[in-house]
Design a protein that fits this description.
The structure holds 2 protein chains of 2 kinds.
Chain A: E1 9-16, H1 27-42, E2 51-55, H2 62-69, E3 76-80, H3 86-99, E4 105-113, H4 133-136, H5 147-162, H6 166-180, H7 195-200, E5 203-206, E6 208-209, E7 218-226, H8 228-231, E8 239-247, H9 267-280, E9 289-291, H10 297-306, H11 315-318, H12 337-341, H13 347-358, E10 370-374, E11 381-388
Helix pairs in contact in A: 1-2, 6-10
Chain B: H1 5-18, E1 27-28, H2 35-45, H3 50-53, H4 55-60, H5 93-103, E2 108-118, E3 129-137, E4 141-142, E5 147-158, E6 164-175, H6 207-214, E7 219-223, E8 229-230, E9 245-249, E10 253-262, E11 274-281, E12 286-290, E13 304-311, E14 317-323
Antiparallel strand pairs in B: 1-3, 2-6, 3-5, 4-5, 5-6, 7-8, 7-9, 10-11, 10-13, 11-12, 13-14
Classes of the chains: A alpha/beta, B alpha+beta.
């Protein structure tokens, strides 16, 4: 019987720096602060950490973090590509390493000066010739250089096919902001957003307005993952990984899978969903809350459909009537998401998913048996379900 | 270096005291609205509107006489050359605010935008005064120039009867200058200094495509073994795994599958807004390009398009699309 990724690992520690627009410190300093806090939160010693996983985009080398934090011998380390698609890909790596005995305590981390340093909104550039530059060259000469512009292309087609309106995108922005207003760590803490604010904000790339787009943030976040047996000895209530899956699809590109017949769907996320639900032996109806990767409002709608919370084109109705609020049918992005808490490439969502299972979110729903956490959209990606250990 | 959290809190408390304050008493324009100044303004601006310049025509117009161009509003209350002089000690609240920020390291200042509104036309003989209020100070923002505070002042322009005739908001950024990236090298001789759009770097798998475009044709990759068309080009045919790959010329006829009107941020080298388009070619492949020669509001999914090879001023050629004739 091959090892499955059902109930093989649990998140036992979370750590994060202050999220800001100008950290004033290096990305490595952010990373080691987050990792150190996650280790303390788990109640383990640095020397017990023997695995690391992060994004290929992360500039902080595992060995530099290990030397700074004072962890010792490591037997597992890996990196996942494709930007935010790696958010749960790193968890997938950690769970596989733990399930196969390659490590006992894996640290997953992401730290960036995403606002004061290199900004994603500044776009891809032709200055440095890299292996994937030829890919971007099919877009740069025509001005498609930012994530907003790539996602806008999908969103326009989706709205055309489904009748989704600006007001429906706004539901996501407003619901997410309402959560952030209660979260002191969020950039938009105590700063509500109204429908007028949303509608009167400037265009970024039509049909996306300013508040359809996530922030750019300086910060770091890390989690400690271990086996369920070891998790029982840790300080905090563990968040068990009930199932995790990773996928990319046919004709996949990085952010620009424009050439499938139907670009209003996410075939890679549908594949993630199918395998993740099967591994976890759970269904969308079992979810009490969700952390849905929200670099842009529209991709939350796409994912509600891809994960089977509703049918194609029905997400605009699903999100109505406060469905994403704390007392709604699917409390979503209860930390304020990347739209309103911070843009940490989705890893802040893993921390929030863990808080939801612990019962310590600032927007905590009453029931918290199962939480869906997803990674980036339009790229090779992944998803997982967190649940209670016992 | 950024300020410590405590110092910053103190600074921001001080800044908040300025919000809502007039910078000083209203300033009375040195001269009443007059025809010579109107003429000089129109000369400088190249404005030949007879309502500003020709007493006879102006008399026949809806104004019934000469009026001043509305955009001269601020000119009537400018201080003259003394504005350009520096100052050792602040002489008004705005200067005092700027000095406090400079002393905290926010030494840079740049005007970012301004807006005006006009209540009525000014006529010769009107006497204009201006009162400037510090309307708002933003939270600290990170900008390309450095971190800083946006300060908005609102000027209310009033006539001899105290009635508001117009207003102006003016926003500046007071900032801690960030380390500037090195200036771009001078453009090689014969190349324009103004950047053009970013060209595709050419590698083994795409150079041939751009070479065909340079020759004025619009190519689609075609597998010589099985005939399948591919875009973007790839080094192997995914239908039959042949690496014997050629190309055919596209007719250019297509329909719009999706699009986005890109408005922000505005990169150098491109005309904004950009209508970026995903076009279904009649041959069956799809390509990203731009729709041009069509107002953005008229662009719609399903519209018929025709492709053509466009050449930029710097000689870069690429296929673009316009509405089909």
């Amino acid at each position: 019987m091959p090892t499955t990724l059902k109930d093989e690992a649990a998140i036992v520690g979370i750590g994060q720096t202050r999220y800001s627009k100008n950290s004033g410190v290096s990305e490595l300093a952010l990373a080691v602060e987050a990792v150190s806090k996650a280790i303390d939160d788990a109640g383990i010693e640095p020397s017990q950490v023997d695995g690391y996983c992060s994004f290929t985009l992360d500039t902080n080398d595992e060995v530099d973090i290990a030397r700074a934090v004072g962890t010792g011998d490591a037997t597992f380390y890996s990196r996942i590509g494709y930007g935010g698609g790696a958010a749960i890909g790193v968890m997938h790596q950690a769970v596989m390493a733990l399930a196969t005995g390659q490590a006992k305590y894996v640290v997953v981390y992401r730290a960036l000066n995403g606002r004061s340093g290199q900004r994603y909104s500044e776009g891809v550039s032709g200055d440095i010739v890299t292996s994937d530059l030829i890919h971007w060259s099919w877009y740069m000469p025509w001005g498609l250089m930012t994530p907003a512009s790539w996602v806008a292309m999908f969103t326009q087609r989706y709205m055309h096919e489904t009748g989704c309106k600006a007001e429906d995108l706004a539901e996501v922005a407003l619901a997410t902001r309402a959560h952030a207003v209660k979260n002191p760590a969020a950039f938009f803490y105590e700063r509500p957003l109204s429908m007028d604010d949303y509608m009167s904000a400037r265009w970024i790339a039509e049909p996306l307005r300013l508040y359809d787009c996530c922030q750019e943030t300086d910060g770091g976040v890390a989690v400690v993952v271990t086996t369920p047996e070891r998790a029982r000895d840790c300080k905090q209530k563990p968040a068990l990984v009930r199932g995790v899956a990773q996928a990319f699809g046919a004709e996949q590109e990085q952010m620009t899978s424009f050439y499938n017949r139907d670009i209003a769907r996410l075939p890679e996320m549908e594949l993630v969903a199918k395998n993740m639900w099967q591994t976890a032996d759970l269904t969308p109806q079992d979810m009490d809350a969700a952390i849905i990767y929200d670099a842009f409002t529209s991709i939350v709608l796409f994912q509600l459909e891809a994960f089977g919370f509703c049918g194609f084109g029905e997400a605009k109705d699903f999100v109505k009537d406060g469905a994403l609020g704390r007392d709604g049918r699917l409390p979503t992005n209860t930390h304020g998401g990347q739209l309103s808490e911070a843009y940490l490439h989705g890893v802040n969502g893993i921390a929030e998913g863990t808080r939801l299972i612990r019962g310590t979110s600032t927007s905590q729903p009453a029931k918290n048996d199962h939480v869906l956490v997803t990674a980036g959209v339009g790229v090779p990606t992944a998803g997982m379900v967190l649940g209670q250990l016992d | 270096m950024p300020l410590s959290p405590e110092k910053k809190q103190q600074l921001e408390a001080t800044l908040r005291e300025f919000v809502g304050k007039p910078i000083g008493p209203p300033y009375q324009g040195r001269d009443a609205v007059n025809e010579p100044m109107i003429r000089q303004w129109c000369d400088a601006m190249g404005d030949t509107n007879p309502a500003y310049l020709d007493p006879a025509a102006a008399k026949e117009s809806v104004h019934g006489g000469i009026v001043a161009p509305p955009t001269m509003l601020q000119a009537w209350t400018m201080h003259g050359f003394e504005m350009a002089k520096g100052y050792d000690e602040p002489t008004n609240e705005e200067q005092r605010l700027h000095k406090i920020l400079s002393e905290h390291g926010y030494t840079g200042v740049v005007g970012t935008n301004t807006a005006q509104g006009y209540t009525r036309y000014l006529r010769p003989g009107d006497s204009v005064s201006a009162e400037i209020v510090i309307e708002s100070i933003s939270e600290e923002k990170a900008t390309a120039l450095g971190i800083g505070y946006f300060i908005v002042t609102r000027t209310s322009f009033r006539d001899q009867d105290g009635e508001e005739v117009g207003w102006m908001t003016f926003r500046v950024l007071k900032y801690i200058p960030a380390q500037q990236p090195q200036a771009a090298a001078d453009a090689p001789a014969g190349q324009p200094a103004v950047p053009g759009r970013i060209r595709a770097p050419k590698g083994h798998d795409n150079a041939w495509w751009w070479d065909r475009v340079d020759e004025g044709t619009f190519p689609i990759q075609k597998c010589n073994a099985c005939g399948t068309l591919h875009h973007p080009p790839r080094p192997m045919c995914s239908a039959c795994r042949s690496q014997d790959l050629g190309w055919v010329e596209a007719s250019g006829r297509g329909t719009l599958h999706s699009f986005t009107v890109i408005r922000h941020p505005q990169f150098p080298g491109y005309d904004f807004p950009i209508v970026a388009a995903l076009v279904d070619l009649e041959e069956g492949t799809r390509i990203v390009s731009n729709v041009v020669e069509c107002p953005p509001e008229d662009v719609h999914i399903g519209m018929a398009l025709e492709g053509f090879i466009h050449e930029d001023e710097d000689g870069f050629k690429l296929p673009l699309f316009r509405p089909a004739a």
